[in-house]
Design brief:
Layout lengths: L7 E6 L3 H12 L3 E7 L3 H11 L2 E2 L3 H5 L4 E4 L6 H10 L3 E5 L6 H14 L3 E4 L6 H8 L4 E9 L18 H17 L3 E9 L8 E8 L4 E7 L6 E8 L2 E6 L4 E8 L2 E8 L5 H18 L10 H24 L8
Parallel strand pairs: 1-2, 1-4, 2-3, 4-5, 5-6, 7-10
Antiparallel strand pairs: 7-11, 8-9, 9-10, 11-12, 12-13, 13-14
Length: 333
């Protein structure tokens, strides 16, 4: 338990769907003191402030001036412009994924954060799922990964783009699984083949990539935001086991070879709140850093967020090149 003097003063910039969850969980975190919120929509900020009993601030700078650390949960296209002044102020940041809309912007953010010696995390929340606790301990012999992340098309928002559609589905949804795959395999990508198409957006709404790594591992990853039925499945084939996770149902299975044949173990993916664990990890890193003299980074660092974004950006570039070569964009409305 933290005393009031030890608590990390936090704020949330952008209190839409994700920002609201961050606000709620900061409020519940015993190591954090929630100072307030900011949103480009004053009405939204006031509503969230009223719901959680915190002050809605009129500017990001005003909020940041009273905080040690902040979550940034604005659209990806605004990440760089929002984060850079906060980094310059020396504020510790938890950025929602993707880290930025472009690799260049992300690199600038990571470099600036390093120069300012701040805690800089990225919200790849799947890394905090219960199943990943097991997978990360058993990743050395991974041979093949298959991931499917399918979602319905986001609902309309008056005066705004549909949530996530400011970027390709690769940066919106697939990047979660790309981060998991990179974490599991622990090797550089040797080559990949990718396909994808816009359906209802100006950017890709469905995409598939097959990745081959320098250590011989292979991954096949599919993402869609125009599916009729949601699906979030992640399967890992290893030299001695098979792990299957269904995030939508909150269930998983581990089949492992043993002296008596094949042993099966059930995994409960709902045994902890992944976002709450992510926020607790960030708050603890900030608290330790404030105590000094070392800088403690969270589980998913800015550098790791950049790594996932670099791969996602390369995939979208190949998709774009392929579609232009074969004139497939002529089908786009």
């Amino acid at each position: 338990m933290f005393s009031s003097k030890e608590k990390v003063r936090v704020g949330v910039v952008g209190v839409g769907v994700l920002g609201r969850f961050h606000t709620k969980l900061y409020k519940e975190n015993s190591g954090a003191e929630l100072v307030g919120v900011y949103d480009v929509s004053p009405a939204t900020a006031r509503a969230i402030g009223k719901e959680f009993g915190v002050k809605p601030f009129e500017s990001i700078a005003e909020l940041a001036g009273q905080c040690d650390a902040l979550t940034v949960a604005v659209p990806a296209t605004e990440h760089h412009a929002t984060a850079m002044p906060l980094i310059e102020m020396g504020k510790h940041l938890l950025m929602e994924k993707p880290l930025a809309a472009t690799v260049q912007e992300a690199r600038e953010m990571v470099r600036a954060a390093g120069e300012k010696n701040i805690v800089f995390g990225v919200g790849h929340v799947e890394r905090f799922n219960a199943a990943m606790d097991f997978l990360e301990k058993n990743r050395s012999n991974t041979l093949f990964i298959e991931a499917h992340r399918l979602a319905k098309y986001p609902p309309p928002r008056p005066g705004m783009h549909r949530r996530g559609t400011e970027v390709s589905v690769v940066l919106d949804l697939m990047i979660h699984d790309l981060d998991l795959v990179l974490t599991m395999v622990g090797s550089d990508v040797e080559r990949f083949d990718a396909v994808g198409m816009p359906v209802l957006s100006k950017t890709e709404d469905i995409a598939n990539v097959r990745l081959k790594f320098k250590n011989g591992a292979v991954a096949n990853v599919t993402a869609s935001r125009v599916s009729s039925e949601p699906m979030r499945k992640f399967r890992v084939f290893q030299t001695d086991s098979y792990i299957s996770m269904d995030y939508a149902k909150g269930t998983g299975r581990i089949l492992r070879k043993s002296f008596l044949g094949v042993a099966t173990k059930a995994v409960n993916l709902c045994e902890k709140n992944a976002l709450a664990a992510e926020i607790a990890d960030f708050v603890e890193a900030v608290r330790k850093t404030k105590e000094g003299p070392m800088i403690f980074q969270p589980k998913v660092t800015g550098a790791q967020g950049l790594r996932a974004l670099e791969l996602a950006a390369a995939i979208t570039e190949e998709i774009d090149s392929y579609n232009r070569k074969y004139d497939l964009y002529k089908f786009r409305k």
